[in-house]
Specification:
Strand order of the largest sheet: 1-3-4-2
Shape: globular
Strand content: 5-15%
Number of domains: 2
Helix content: 55-70%
Number of helices: 9
Order of helices and strands: HEHHHHHHEHHEE
Length: 192
């Protein structure tokens, strides 16, 4: 690719960016001040589902990843965020389980994936990322049985898991992430 082609690409993208800014400026933009990201809501949006899938994929699967792992992780995320699952999880939280249903559904799904891989012709090495996910999920659940909320550095230090592997679980499980007043505080899901 030549320098001239790169310049043309940059110019075209800058025109697109300029157009977006111009149109938003014309119609107006009203910022909504929120204290926290509520992942019980955000995980329903396509862009956040994709973010969570990408975080799991990048964190648990080594560079020699396979597309089918992306597809499996996508199915797990879609299951946990499906309307029926979300309704069940919300009812469970209202009943005092505080995220237990989401943990259980996630755990059951990962264990089933492990079993399916074990019973397939895939090499045993393909079970390792899911086994690690299962182990990490157990540690996160155990930690939050004794904590209503915690900062990420406290969670990381206490359970011995790098934060990159903690974040996607907290998001998919619907935790609330304080980002303003109590920066980096993760709180158990609530019922709206």
């Amino acid at each position: 690719m030549t320098v001239d082609k790169i310049k043309i690409i940059v110019e075209n993208k800058m025109r697109d960016i300029e157009f977006i800014i111009e149109k938003v400026s014309e119609r107006g933009c009203h910022d909504i001040y929120l204290e926290a990201d509520d992942y019980s809501e955000l995980r329903q949006k396509r862009e956040y589902k994709d973010l969570i899938i990408g975080e799991f994929y990048e964190t648990y699967f080594l560079p020699q990843r396979h597309e089918f792992d992306w597809n499996i992780v996508s199915q797990i995320v879609e299951l946990i965020t499906s309307p029926d699952a979300v309704k069940f999880i919300e009812l469970s939280i209202a009943g005092g389980l505080a995220g237990g249903a989401a943990y259980d559904l996630m755990k059951t799904t990962i264990l089933k994936v492990l079993e399916l891989i074990k019973n397939s012709d895939l090499p045993e090495s393909h079970r390792k990322p899911y086994a690690l996910m299962s182990s990490d999920l157990n540690k996160i659940r155990k930690y939050f049985k004794n904590h209503e909320s915690s900062r990420i550095n406290e969670i990381e230090k206490s359970i011995g898991i790098p934060r990159e592997r903690i974040y996607p679980f907290l998001k998919i499980l619907g935790f609330i992430h304080q980002r303003r007043t109590n920066s980096c505080l993760w709180c158990k899901p609530e019922v709206g």
